[in-house]
Amino acid sequence: MKEPKKPKEPPNIDIYRAWCKGCGICAAFCPTGVLARDEAGYPYVQDIDKCINCGWCEIRCPDFAITVEQKKRRERRTKEEREKERPAREVTSG
Amino acid sequence: MVEVTKLIHKYLRHDKKFPHVWCPGCGIGIMLGALVRAIDRVGYSKDEIVMVSGIGCTGRLPVYVDFNTLHTTHGRALAFGTGVKLANPNLKVIVVMGDGDAVAIGGNHFIHAARRNIDITAIILNNSVYGMTGGQFSPTTPYGMKTTTTVYSNVEQAFKISELAVTAGAVFVARGTVYHAKLLDGLMEKAFLKVGFSVVEVISHCHTQFGRLNRMGSAVEMMQWQREHAVTVEKARQMKEKELQDKFKIGVLVDRELPVYQDEYEKVRKWSQGVVKK
């Protein structure tokens, strides 16, 4: 049986509070509702698992105060390593 | 996506001037981001670019960028830009103006720069009001809207900046909104690459002055208004005139070829020196 796919690691959202003015554009136009606003109007990450890394909050932020970063994947294995892992093929005659 | 922010840190004076002076949610910040991304995509070096601006909220923009910048008198940004371009045609001149700068006090400079077809990119941010000076009505305030100097209602018709540029003879005219920020990147990139007078009109919002008096809500609600009222040029072709009445087109409106001023002027210089006979 096939193993179920591993869930993708969610990206890292960084909000730079020193520059943020709390306009609410990032939270309002987030397509999946990852961001929300606190009582003072500043955004915070509500549900990071919903993030699809579209980057619209970063592009629409007028104050350059939010970044979305996809965490780095595991480095790709080289060809030799893959060969080693693969079980040796049975030689069939015929 | 973090690369975008890296670019912003590369091209902006982020260690001195930030956070910027514009109101929370102002579209000028979004436009500045699009401008920087477009410049990076074309691949200009910082020394190649001259960014010229006039007075107003948009006039503050060159303060934040790390290019050669020129902050000039009200409405004269294009005149200064013309001088820079003719003195050194190798420079890329980008003129950033507000609607008051471009079509009110600098209206003549604007139409004559377009007619002359000098190789300048004009980026005009249209927020329908004079924001910095207290919300007076501007030539682009729509009919029937309230401002601090038209407290009952504005009785004048608004200028349509892009259509004016097309009529005046600009070779590349495009319109975008700050809501469609990725489209704006592409339009600006095309405008930079076009040789000749190219205009990008950016529809923005002034929720502090214009939105408050007209009960249009916050920056978010005004951006939703842009989303509802913008129609792409391709889609507008299939729509009827009646449906387009309260909408505006976004995308490339005109892209044509006309002789460019500084090339023609170079010819005149050669004729006058007797190098080439006419």
Written description of the protein model:
- The complex is a heterodimer of chains A (94) and B (278).
- Chain A has 94 residues and is α+β, with helices and mostly antiparallel strands.
- Chain A has a domain at 12-72: Alpha-Beta Plaits.
- Chain A has 3 helices and 4 strands.
- Chain A has helices at 25-28, 56-60, 79-85; strands at 12-15, 35-37, 43-45, 66-69.
- In chain A, strands 1-4 form a two-stranded antiparallel ribbon. A two-stranded antiparallel sheet of chain A has the order 2-3.
- The radius of gyration of chain A is 21 Å and the shape is elongated.
- With 278 residues, chain B is α/β, with parallel strands linked by helices.
- Chain B has one domain (2-273): Rossmann fold (3-Layer(aba) Sandwich), CATH 3.40.50.
- Chain B has helices spanning 2-11, 27-42, 77-87, 99-105, 107-116, 161-168, 181-193, 207-213, 219-229, 233-237, 261-273, and strands at residues 49-53, 68-71, 92-98, 121-126, 129-130, 136-137, 172-177, 198-203, 230-232, 248-255.
- In chain B, strand 9, helix 10 (233-237) and strand 10 form a beta-alpha-beta unit.
- The N and C termini of chain B lie far apart (55 Å).
- The mean pLDDT of chain B is 90.
